[in-house]
Design a protein that fits this description.
single chain; alpha+beta; six-stranded mixed beta sheet; 25% helix
């Protein structure tokens, strides 16, 4: 038998509330409250020592008057410890301003151990946080870290109820490890210029896209790079010389900090970027020009067939049709397809 929620098949009980940040928060918080084994393991992982979790209180979406906003998860055990976890879908970590607000809720004098925790899909080796904010230590964990910890605790515990919830949590959170829908047929269509990436090298963005194998890279989207995607894409399309040149399936995605170490023609940088290794080029059956009101430097999202089928003459037409379908599917409240 199978269970469905609003026509969507459920793989876990947590899936009934979707796969957004609130769903992840609820799933993690609930399981911590139901599994002492998991709660102890997570606290010990965060603080690096054994913690008495017998009186653990788990608060989700807690609001404190005058403190600003809601915390995703707060873990407190009397005077033993106080940790605040800020969970995000995708690869973006919380801002320093957000963490400083949460730090005001933690009193180092009232708790022996304190911690501010960011939780995203980003591997911790690519995250650089200040060691402390407002006197509170910080750390980062990925959804993959949580899934692995839950799996270890499931093997360790003999309690049937704990094992059930840990299995449900692991299955649910696997969706958050990259948040890339492999069935999506949306193309991230990017413009490429003929300007050299590094002056004097004679190597351009078009060379990146037409290499063997073809590749592409962009910063991980977030407050510092709001115009770029926060999660890896399935399809990358290239537009240059005034028209769509090719569309590629993304065969592999890596997170890289300094691209120049991989290729001396690529830029030097310290911020994480998505590096895509692409499949063979798929070309439109008819020429697809940019069209009216399409700026040469703007990126867009289009349905795969609108670029390749030959039915739509311009990128502007492809965007309009993609958005029409989106409205038809009643996804109006979702994040806009157009980059702002």
């Amino acid at each position: 038998m199978k269970a469905f929620w609003r026509s969507r098949e459920l793989s876990t009980v947590f899936g009934a509330s979707g796969i957004d940040e609130n769903s992840a928060t609820a799933a993690l918080g609930w399981t911590l409250a139901q599994s002492p084994t998991f709660a102890r393991a997570l606290l010990e992982d965060l603080f690096g020592e054994k913690v008495d979790a017998s009186e653990l209180r788990v608060d989700m979406q807690r609001h404190e008057p005058g403190a600003g906003g809601f915390t995703d998860i707060e873990l407190r055990t009397g005077s033993e410890c106080h940790a605040i976890i800020e969970a995000k879908v995708g690869w973006v970590i919380p801002t320093e301003a957000q963490f400083r607000l949460y730090a005001e809720r933690i009193d180092p004098k009232a708790s022996r151990l304190t911690k501010l925790v960011s939780l995203t899909a980003m591997n911790r080796k690519f995250v650089k946080l200040p060691s402390k904010l407002a006197g509170v230590p910080t750390t980062h964990r990925s959804w993959e870290d949580i899934v692995r910890l839950a799996a270890r605790c499931r093997v360790k515990t003999r309690q049937v109820v704990e094992r059930l919830w840990l299995e449900q949590l692991g299955n649910h959170l696997e969706r958050y490890m990259q948040m890339q829908d492999i069935l999506s047929s949306i193309v991230y269509l990017v413009p490429l210029g003929t300007k050299e990436i590094i002056e004097g090298r004679g190597y351009t963005w078009i060379d990146v896209a037409t290499g063997d194998p073809p590749q592409y890279f962009h910063p991980v989207g977030g407050p510092a790079y709001p115009r770029f995607p926060k999660v890896p894409q399935n399809y990358i399309g290239f537009r240059y010389h005034g028209k769509v040149q090719s569309v590629h399936f993304v065969e592999k995605v890596d997170v890289v900090v300094n691209l120049n170490r991989l290729n001396k023609n690529w830029p030097v940088g310290q911020d994480p970027v998505f590096l895509y290794t692409l499949g063979p080029a798929m070309t439109p059956s008819k020429e697809v020009r940019s069209g009216r009101n399409i700026w040469p430097t703007d990126s867009h999202y289009c349905a795969l067939d609108t670029l390749l089928s030959g039915r739509y003459e311009t990128v502007a037409d492809a965007i309009a049709e993609t958005n029409r379908r989106r409205r038809l599917m009643r996804l109006d409240e979702a994040e806009p397809l157009e980059l702002q």
